[in-house]
């Protein structure tokens, strides 16, 4: 079944160049070539490989066949058998598992191989073979056994990678950090074209359909630095608004679009197709459960949250748009404090509280989208809050803080993104009383490439927000975390220039949280 790829020679050359950048092996190994007679005109593994959802006995392997990634994928409307191999060694001499998966047009010829029964805390290598094409190899690792006491866990987390505003040089540096895991906290793609000084362009208009979202995901996945980071370690992912549309809340878009349910369903499905997610996360209609827990022995438990799908709509919206967020003065928007309002939805709230209470992990990491600490955004006189983050849902935040105080999970650490700046905050029992107890520690990370507001604006907010220990919008980058029994060490990493793919990097600040003592200390 040869594939009649309609790629021009120039396009093929471009794709070939992209492969050599990513170090992709273009031909299948000889034994596979004999067994698999299908011939591709162009290597279909243009989007690389990925692994995710690491469990003590398994992991998900992902790829997608897309010889023409920016144009619907370029595959015929047929099922294609893809062979996969999991090996103990990077030369694939000692195969641990192998099998076949079906890449179907219904799921854009994506492949999700959900493995179970593997050894815990073990590194594996994997690759895919389709016809005479083979993917580049990927490396992954299972989580430690539930009863294990790992000496350390080293992970990086990231968010907000607007493709046009910068290259992904941050991932090139992350790849050199020897992390066990990447956690991605939202805005993996952007639906809209915005910002200044673009270094590259989205290939199509703002997506609203499944075909549009597929092409947008595919374009982001063509980036060689992003592909390389996916191939190195497993990722745990959650989303924010831009995977669908700016500031959406549950079934409501910022502009109150009439057919938003259909748009959200298309966006969620394309997201599933492009991420290493488990079958349990398969979208059903416009819904897709992505919140979950991931444990790393007794050392760490990640509570991965979804603050978009089930939230109440933002209060006091800008009348110009109808929905979405604004900066509101407290005096003009008392409904912000309505106790009925939730950012997680009540089912997810109860699931989170129960999980925190049951947790036996030393570090409880809440992996979520946005800034959780209260932030008065009016310098000096007057108080204002931004309604899209947890500040739009103060009663829900207080319920979570009360859960920390009453159920006493060990060492809650909140990680987030969304605001394109590094923020380090003490999460207080009562933010308006600086002397009140610190119940948890928050590290909100800067963006991979999305632009931020001026640092001067952050600095003028600090006097009114004494629980903020550090704020910097000056650099794009990521956050590096090292957990041990004694402490949580955090390095805020910032690249010199997101417009330069060969950019340098610096550590902007280091903090430490000691076991049993909430609150960040400068290190
Ligand atoms: Fe963002």
Protein architecture, described:
- A hairpin with a 7-residue loop joins strand 3 (about 80-85) and strand 4 (about 95-105).
- The protein has helices at about 10-20, 30-35, 170-175, 210-220, 225-230, 260-275, 345-360, 395-405, 455-460; strands at about 50-55, 60-65, 80-85, 95-105, 110-115, 125-130, 135, 140, 150-160, 180-185, 235, 290-295, 300-305, 325-330, 365, 385, 410-415, 420-430, 440-445, 470, 475-485, 485-495, 505-515, 520.
- The longest helix is centred in the first third of the chain and has 14 residues, at about 10-20.
- It is about 20% helix and about 25% strand.
- The chain contains nine helices and 24 strands.
- It has about 525 residues and is of the alpha+beta class.
- Fe (ii) ion (FE2) binds near residues 160, 187, 418 and 450.
Indicate the overall shape. Answer: globular
Number of helices: 9
**Head-to-tail CA distance between termini:** 60 Å
**What share of residues are in beta strands?**
25-35%
The overall average pLDDT, rounded, is 93
Strand order of the largest sheet: 11-10-9-21-22-23-24
> Which spans of ≥5 residues are poorly predicted at pLDDT below 50?
1-27, 30-37
Oligomer: single chain
For the biggest sheet, the summary is:
7 strands, mixed
Total count of strands: 24
Précis, in short:
The chain has helices at 9-22, 30-35, 169-174, 210-221, 224-232, 260-273, 346-358, 394-407, 455-461, and strands at residues 49-55, 58-64, 80-87, 95-103, 110-115, 123-130, 133-134, 138-141, 152-158, 181-184, 235-237, 292-296, 300-304, 327-329, 363-367, 384-386, 412-416, 422-428, 438-444, 468-472, 477-484, 487-495, 505-514, 521-522. The protein is an alpha+beta fold and 523 residues long. A hairpin with a 3-residue loop joins strand 12 and strand 13 (300-304).
């Amino acid at each position: 079944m040869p594939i009649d790829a309609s790629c021009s020679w120039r396009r093929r050359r471009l794709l070939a160049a992209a492969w050599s950048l990513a170090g992709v092996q273009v031909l299948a190994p000889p034994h596979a070539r004999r067994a698999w007679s299908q011939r591709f005109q162009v290597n279909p593994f243009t989007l690389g490989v990925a692994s995710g959802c690491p469990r003590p006995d398994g992991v998900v392997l992902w790829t997608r066949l897309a010889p023409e990634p920016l144009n619907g994928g370029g595959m015929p409307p047929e099922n294609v058998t893809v062979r996969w191999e999991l090996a103990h060694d990077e030369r694939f001499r000692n195969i641990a598992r192998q099998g076949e998966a079906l890449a179907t047009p219904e799921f854009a010829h994506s492949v999700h191989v959900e493995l179970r029964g593997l050894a815990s805390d073990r590194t594996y290598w994997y690759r895919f073979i389709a016809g005479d094409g083979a993917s580049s190899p990927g490396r992954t690792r299972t989580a430690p056994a539930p009863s294990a006491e790992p000496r350390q866990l080293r992970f990086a987390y990231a968010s907000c990678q607007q493709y046009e505003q910068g290259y992904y040089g941050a991932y090139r540096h992350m790849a050199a950090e020897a992390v066990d895991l990447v956690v991605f906290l939202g805005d993996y793609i952007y639906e809209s074209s915005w910002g200044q000084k673009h270094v590259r362009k989205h290939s199509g208009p703002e997506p609203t359909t499944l075909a549009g979202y597929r092409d947008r995901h595919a374009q982001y996945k063509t980036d060689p630095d992003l592909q390389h980071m996916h191939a190195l370690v497993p990722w745990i992912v959650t989303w924010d608004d831009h995977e669908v549309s700016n500031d959406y809340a549950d079934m409501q878009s910022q502009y109150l679009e009439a057919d938003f349910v259909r748009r959200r369903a298309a966006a969620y499905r394309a997201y599933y197709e492009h991420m290493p997610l488990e079958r349990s996360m398969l979208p059903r209609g416009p819904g897709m459960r992505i919140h979950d827990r991931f444990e790393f022995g007794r050392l760490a438990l990640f509570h991965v949250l979804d603050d978009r799908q089930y939230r109440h709509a933002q209060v006091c919206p800008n009348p110009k748009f109808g929905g979405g967020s604004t900066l509101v003065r407290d005096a003009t928007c008392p409904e912000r404090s309505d106790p009925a309002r939730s950012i997680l939805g009540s089912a997810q709230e109860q699931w989170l509280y129960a999980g925190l209470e049951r947790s036996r992990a030393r570090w409880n990491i809440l992996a979520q989208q946005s800034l959780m600490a209260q932030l008065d955004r009016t310098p000096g006189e007057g108080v204002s809050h931004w309604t899209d983050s947890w500040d739009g849902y103060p009663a829900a935040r207080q319920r979570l803080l009360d859960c920390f105080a009453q159920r006493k999970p060990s060492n809650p650490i909140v990680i987030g993104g969304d605001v394109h700046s590094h923020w380090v905050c003490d999460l207080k029992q009562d933010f308006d009383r600086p002397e009140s107890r610190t119940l948890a520690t928050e590290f909100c990370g800067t963006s991979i490439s999305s632009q931020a507001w001026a640092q001067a604006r952050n600095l003028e907010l600090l006097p009114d927000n004494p629980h903020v220990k550090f704020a910097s919008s000056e650099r794009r980058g990521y956050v590096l975390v090292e957990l041990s029994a004694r402490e949580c060490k955090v390095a805020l990493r910032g690249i010199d220039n997101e417009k330069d793919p060969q950019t340098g990097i610096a550590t902007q600040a280091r903090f430490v949280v000691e076991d049993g003592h909430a609150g960040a200390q400068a290190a």
